[in-house]
Specification:
With 340 residues, the protein is an alpha/beta fold. The chain folds into 2 domains: 107 residues, ATPase, nucleotide binding domain (Nucleotidyltransferase, domain 5); 188 residues, 3-Layer(aba) Sandwich (Hexokinase, domain 1), CATH 3.40.367.20. The chain contains 12 helices and 15 strands. The radius of gyration is 21 Å and the shape is globular. Bound molecules: adenosine-5'-triphosphate. The site of adenosine-5'-triphosphate has 17 residues, from helix 5, helix 6 and helix 8. This is Glucokinase. It is found in: Cytoplasm. GO terms for molecular function: ATP binding; D-glucose binding; glucokinase activity.
Amino acid sequence: MPKSPENDHMPFPVLVGDIGGTNARFWILTDAHGAPKEFPTIQTADFPTIDQAIQDRILDKSGVQPRSAILAVAGPIKDDEIPLTNCPWVIRPKAMISELGFDDVLVVNDFEAQALAAASLGRDDRQPIGALSENSLGSRVILGPGTGLGVGGLLYTQHTWFPVPGEGGHVDLGPRSERDWQIFPHVEQIDGRISGEQILCGRGIVHLYKAICAADGIEAVWTDPAEVTQHALAGSDPVCVETMTLFVTYLGRLAGDMALVFMARGGVFLSGGISQRIIPLLHKPEFRAAFEDKAPHSAMMKTIPTFVVTHPQAALSGLSAYARTPSSYGVKHEGRRWQR
Ligand SMILES: Nc1ncnc2c1ncn2[C@@H]1O[C@H](COP(=O)(O)OP(=O)(O)OP(=O)(O)O)[C@@H](O)[C@H]1O
């Protein structure tokens, strides 16, 4: 099993990687200060193993042999073999050390990487939703609707950022308004319940759209989430407009709940593939209204800023910030760091 040395930094050059189901993205940091060396995004389907992808597209192209790797992956890290969700790649840190020449490999959760980004992103890397554009040095939350719904916390205490990976996308989402009560009986359930991820992700958009059609007794036309958002943005289909109005309402409601849990005075950050594509819809009043509608704490909620993360490689930026100044972050190494 892996060793558990805490608080020592990963030796440079460091390969940072964000390994998703569809795409894998990598940078090499040669030292703690210089700009990262960037590489084109790799489609995971193009290589049978992550090791081949790293060898062909990074090591053979770079001229720099990284000494260590920090990889962010979707899913739990429990063993020496880490399978990825939605892709046949398996991360084998021991083989990366013996065959690819690394001395040190750390594997973290993808929403931990996103949370690290929320600690370090500058003003140019985010767009405020609502009137508040500044944020204080305080705990934060990151929510990412994409293929699923990822949620991460970022606690700030004792001058240190502690990312908290969790499964917040699977909390219950309940009906609230009269219209919700008409629609929710038609939303597809998972084991008899409606979790956040049943609505607040790509396939969730289609679930919600179909539920509205069923509630109103009309025929569903669209089957792709991108079709629904495009018609909502263009105002060309009233059911799509309602779907996305309710989508941002429920996203605001859940974001507000997570802000309450983490007392996220430093703000809530929306990441994932969908948030950036629906920014005009998030700017409509419903998102913030639902976010703030948290009696008896509505006044406090009005003081919490909300942002869309616009940095194209937020997870890599978070991992890089950690690699450069590890002492600013409380990132657990135990059980997920392997050394030569
Ligand atoms: N324009 C759009 N509007 C709404 N949903 C979209 C749009 N484009 C893509 N999607 C949906 O977003 C989801 C993909 O999100 P995202 O790009 O965040 O993936 P991801 O989970 O980060 O992927 P990976 O696992 O490869 O990192 C899919 O369900 C897709 O159908």
